[in-house]
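Per reviewer request, we include the raw input and output of the structure prediction for the construct analysed in the revised manuscript.
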Amino acid sequence: MHGLEDHLFVDLVTVVCAAFIGGFAARLIHVPPVLGYLAVGMLIGPYGLGRMDADWLDFATVAEEATVHTLAEIGVVLLVFAIGIEVSFRGLVSLGRVIIIGGLLQIVLCAAMIAPVGIALGLDLTTAIIFGMVGALSSTMVVLKTLSDSGELNSLHGRLMTGFLLLQDLMFIPMIAMLPALDGSGGAASVLREVGWGVLKATVVIGGLALLGIKIVPRVMSRITLMGSREMFVLMVVAIVFAIAALTNFVGLSAALGAFVAGLLLSESDVGHWALAEISPLRDVFGVLFFASLGLLTDPVFLIENYDLVLAVVGSVVVIKFAVTSLILRFSGYLPSTSLLTGIGLGQIGEFSFILVASALTLGVVDQDFYSLVVVSAVLTMAAGPSVIAGGSKLITKLSSRFRVLRPYRIGDPHGEERPRQLFGHVVICGLGQVGTMVAQELHEHQVPFVAVDLDQRTLAEWRLHGYRTVQGSADRQEVLRAARVPQAGLLVIATGDPVSVELTAQHALDLQPDLDIVARVRARTEGEDLQQMGVQEVVWPEMEAGLEMLRHALSRYRTPDYEVDRVVYQLRERLSFNLSDRSRRDGADGNRQRPGSDGATPTDGAAPARSENAEEDIEPAPTSD
């Protein structure tokens, strides 16, 4: 490096320092840091201080935008990879049909409705078509980061957004392939050939990555982890991420899509969260560069001179995408609150719109003014995205308490609405995954009345056939718990897997009935300790129970006397069991407690229904209409 002459180091230092100042200032005035990153990006970019021809500003402006964009792409790859680890792979697969059919319909309808808006704003037909395609794409980076920060990645609306975004990334290939036809340089046959070739490459690559993740990556990671070297582990993770990202980018897919797939592959392994912890510092630093780079692209002068046109574009795109997405999901049978939250989350114009409109500009299909219009509009929608998603969630929660149509649950009962209201002392089971279904089946066998709460309408329908009341909704909502008659319940079983959902469910339940007997499932010791402090009476830690049973088997295998095995297991359980009442197993008190009952909610004969395969991830696949 010849001093600082090539500007690479200077640009990097300038952006990082400016981003720190912008983020710090944003925190001081209580606005999202993203707005600070964007603001300083505009200030130090070519359309801000870069307009001033002054040598003393060289160290305060970015000379090489391409360099910063490359570094920002690294941030996108690392961030999306980390999010891929956090997302439930099984949860996405379970929503496959609605994501594919609903997602394709959403893209087509949005593009078809946004294009006429462009014509109304004075665009020619070709530019309007590109405007429709650009507007149909949402921001993978902004939405996934917002969901990750708020802990909603594995919520139902979070998984729906994620699935729709991944499909949009895949549809980017045929959109790019269509551009030559729009400028007249390619006929229909050549466009179809390019689209088909792109789809074939995508299919082969995704299939190859799946095979790689199942057969090869786990073996390599096992070998590396056995070496006990943290350095080698980090290098291996980074190599896997960027190799897969480079491969998908090479075949015409986005690098972000490849990174997300890499994260999904590692999420099913034992070292996924270890990898997440190791790359988090890099992810956070380089991720900031992405938002700062958006500011570099923004021309504030164009925004000021054309504010009315920009507002018209932003308003029309956001409203159309919100309406189309919400209606598609509502007609697919999802609850109004889920449909509206997903529609709000996908309302912005995405980062792939930059690539699409830049390619169109290179081909001469659109002019510079349209390029600037799209970039400024996209940056504004992405900047507002986190606040809009958070505010929309609060608004829907508030409105759902006033308007019945927006209630976050759906009651199902074979006896009608009135009879179940006499339920008293019953069990409420939240989550019909493996754990919840096992509890429900045994309660069914012993004729103990219960109310099942889940988002999977199909599983709930099976339990209704057996004579049980069901509530379709998320158990971490107080309205849902009221609908399940928690204030009158004798026991609450929280069998969902998400720690945030478990804590919220327990808190709302105790607000409704402070003395309620609650048994909750946790995934870590700290979660159990937090629940204990809240007042949850019994906490089940599956990992602890599995370890104790394995220890029991190992000691018995080597002929340790049974009394010694029992003593060791008992002492370990005493030491690890959160100091809760389960230490004494309630001293037999459960046997003296009056069995919960009701006046008529007796199950019918027959085998208990099968579990909801993905209910522990809070999924609502293929629901039926009200």
